[in-house]
Design brief:
The protein is α/β, with parallel strands linked by helices and 444 residues long. It has 17 helices and 20 strands. α11 (273-288) packs antiparallel against α12 (293-302). Pathway: Cell wall biogenesis; peptidoglycan biosynthesis.
């Protein structure tokens, strides 16, 4: 019997353990931290052996194959040792795809991947197709393969998940955009991160498709210098494309074999240029999967966005509060500020991943009346913006930040939580941060 060792007992780890056991592997799960109760129950119920708060090296290095959780960097000594011993270290996506019969739509990008994944899933569900959604969102892909292999699987894929693939190839790949993010995991080299994203297409064949943002210079220049086997289907807000998706007369058109007018951009449920792009990518994927254009249009008109992404919370005394906690990098915050129509009190900060805030300067000048810092170290934010924003206040948590913003904001303003940073200093996750902000707003 082959031995599968799973490092990290979160959603992807436990899902992989279940699938591994089902497929006849001897499974051992090891987590350096404490395992959450809900995952411990699943492991116990399935009779899977595990350890927590330690890694027993002897148990781990006699593995035939190791599945590493995306949160564990490749550079940790244990992973280096496994690789030196010639033991294959892969991601859940790689492991699960070997056993999956689904047609896979894979979505990656620095921003917009959650919304695009949800949009594709929403359209395909509306078309009554047997579809599952997983990867970096929702239920573990591996567990879905074990329990209910869907005809189509829509996967949100982070660069960390793509780093751990060998043969994985989606039938349809989508790259929403590429901007600097997670550089702390890529030796602060942007090109390493770019290579990671493009792993999504590296095993694709001529029968597969790569849908991408033609307006994104990073993507365009990579494609100029590298060969891709898949059929290229760009989407663009600026130019008409030979095949792919584009805008003409404020309407979305899809061109693949024939040209189809999908809908007017103004009736899209999610607003802003970045969301128009997400909708174009999703419509293109759905068209390849033979979904009728009326179903695509209806789905894009009634879609409800991702939680913690420009999510309206409440209006109090004429001030709109918006939760954009999912903006964990500068580019995501750029989109948020760009879509603000009223004077904005901006709540920002957290764990800096090597951010350059200068990109935000023109928007901050134009839209932001005050900055409320939410993080342990706010030096960089304060140094960047002290000249352009009259009022910058430091706070020590979501509740205090919300109260300060409440005092500053006047009727007709917007209070925007869009941190541009990771959340690990004061919060468990961006969801935890967003929920604490929403709670604080409700208590005002």
């Amino acid at each position: 019997m082959k031995k599968l060792v799973v490092l990290g007992a979160g959603e992807s780890g436990v899902g992989t353990a279940i699938l591994g056991k089902q497929k006849g592997y001897t499974v051992f799960v090891s987590d350096k931290g404490a395992i959450a109760e809900k995952y411990k129950k699943v492991l116990l119920n399935n009779g899977i052996s595990f350890e927590e708060e330690k890694h027993t090296i002897a148990e781990i290095i006699d593995a035939d194959i190791v599945m590493k959780s995306p949160g564990i960097p490749d550079s940790v000594p244990l992973v280096t040792e496994l690789k030196e011993k010639g033991i294959s270290v892969i991601s859940e996506i790689e492991f699960a795809s070997k056993f999956s019969k689904s047609v896979i739509v894979g979505v990656t990008g620095s921003n917009g991947k959650t919304t695009t994944t949800m949009l594709v899933n929403h359209i395909l569900k509306k078309a009554n197709l047997n579809v599952g959604m997983g990867g970096n969102i929702g239920d573990s892909f591996a567990q879905q393969v074990a329990e209910s292999d869907f005809d189509i699987q829509v996967l949100e894929l982070s660069s960390f998940q793509l780093d751990g693939i060998e043969d994985f190839a989606p039938h349809i790949a989508i790259i929403t955009n590429i901007t600097p993010d997670h550089l702390d995991r890529y030796n602060y080299k942007f090109e390493n991160y770019v290579e990671s994203k493009f792993r999504i297409t590296k095993n694709q064949t001529e029968d597969d498709f790569l849908i991408y943002d033609a307006d994104d210079e990073v993507i365009a220049s990579w494609l100029k210098n590298n060969k891709v086997k898949a059929t290229l289907l760009p989407f663009s807000l600026r130019n008409e494309v030979e095949q792919g998706a584009y805008i003409k007369d404020n309407k979305i058109f899809i061109k693949y074999n024939t040209e189809i007018e999908i809908m007017k951009t103004k009736t899209l449920a999610v607003k802003g240029n970045h969301n128009t792009k997400n909708a174009m990518a999703a419509a293109m994927a759905a068209t390849l999967l033979k979904v009728r254009k009326d179903t695509i249009r209806e789905s894009l008109e009634d879609f409800e966005g991702a939680a913690h992404r420009l999510e309206p919370v409440l209006k109090i005394n004429g001030v709109q509060y918006i939760n954009d906690s999912k903006a964990t990098n500068v580019n995501a915050t750029y989109y948020a500020l760009d879509s603000m129509q009223t004077p904005t009190v901006w709540i920002v900060g957290g764990v800096d991943k090597g951010n350059d805030y200068l990109d935000l300067m023109p928007l901050v000048r134009e839209k932001v009346k005050a900055i409320v810092c939410l993080g342990v170290d706010n030096q960089k934010i304060m140094q960047t913006f002290y000249n352009v924003v009259d009022l910058i206040v430091e706070t020590a948590g979501a509740e205090e930040a919300t109260k300060v913003a409440y005092k500053i904001a006047e009727k007709g303003d917007t209070v925007l939580l869009s941190p541009a940073c990771a959340s690990f200093d004061l919060f468990e996750s961006y969801e935890d941060r967003g929920n604490k902000f929403k709670q604080a707003v409700r208590e005002l």
